[in-house]
Specification:
By secondary structure, the chain is mainly α. The chain has 12 helices and no strands. The protein has 2 domains: about 80 residues, Endonuclease Iii, domain 2 (Orthogonal Bundle), CATH 1.10.1670; about 110 residues, Hypothetical protein, domain 2 (Endonuclease III, domain 1, Orthogonal Bundle), CATH 1.10.340. About 55% of the residues lie in helices and about 0% in strands. It is elongated. The two termini are about 20 Å apart.
Length: about 220
């Protein structure tokens, strides 16, 4: 299994946090509120499984999604989704575990593109961020947000700012005392000073909304 592109060691995280606090005094206040950075990646399983799981979890509560996903993986011989076997499953089998017709179609598209080599999913970690986003968003049902979550929490890429994320927008609104949620364009403008550690800045913004919650990880 590939290592994270940006190992979240105490030393590397400490450097990132120091940089961010110096770069933006308003973000520095958020960092002080949240405390030590405990950002980690989720690298178990395969990249294919990670993307399939993200599709299953879309627009569902954690408990409902976990139940459906558990039934879904039980369809596979080794308990791990693989493209070839997914393509051999019938629509009835997929619907039988609780997947909607739409999500079944998304999973089939992911499997088709992976199995046929159109998306070399297990070597995505070898590509730059932009090429990974392009590859993943070519799959039906995988949008920019999902691709960015893959970059941050699967690969540990350090400089990703999910400008469409409502949590990030809400946290920026609070930190900067804005009257309304910033637009995605304004999120990118405000966050420009956080480069090259915008993933870590995003983690702090999510945590500032709910210090206890494990934002985005595992999804």
């Amino acid at each position: 299994m590939p290592q994270a592109m940006y190992p979240s060691s105490p030393l590397s995280l400490r450097h990132a946090v120091t940089y961010l606090k110096r770069a933006d005094h308003k973000l520095a206040a958020v960092i002080e509120q949240v405390g030590p950075c405990r950002f980690t990646t989720k690298g178990d399983g395969t990249h294919f499984e990670a993307v399939a799981r993200a599709i299953v979890y879309q627009q569902l509560s954690g408990k409902a999604a976990a139940t459906i996903y558990g039934r879904f993986v039980a369809l596979f011989d080794a308990g791990t989704p693989v493209p070839g076997q997914l393509l051999s499953l019938s629509d009835e089998e997929l619907r039988g575990v609780g997947l909607s017709r739409q999500k079944s179609g998304y999973l089939r598209d992911l499997a088709t593109r992976s199995h046929g080599g159109e998306v070399s999913i297990e070597t995505l970690h070898e590509l730059p961020d932009g090429e990974i986003v392009t590859a993943l968003t070519s799959v039906k049902g995988v949008g920019l947000w999902t691709a960015q979550m893959f970059l941050i929490f699967r690969l540990g890429r350090p400089d990703v700012l999910p400008e469409l994320d409502l949590g990030v927008q809400k946290a920026i609104q609070r930190a900067y005392r804005l009257r309304a949620h910033p637009t995605p364009k304004r999120v990118l403008a405000i966050g420009a000073k956080w480069a090259p550690y915008r993933s870590i800045a995003s983690w702090y913004l999510w945590r500032s909304l709910d210090p206890v919650a494990e934002y985005r990880q595992g999804k």
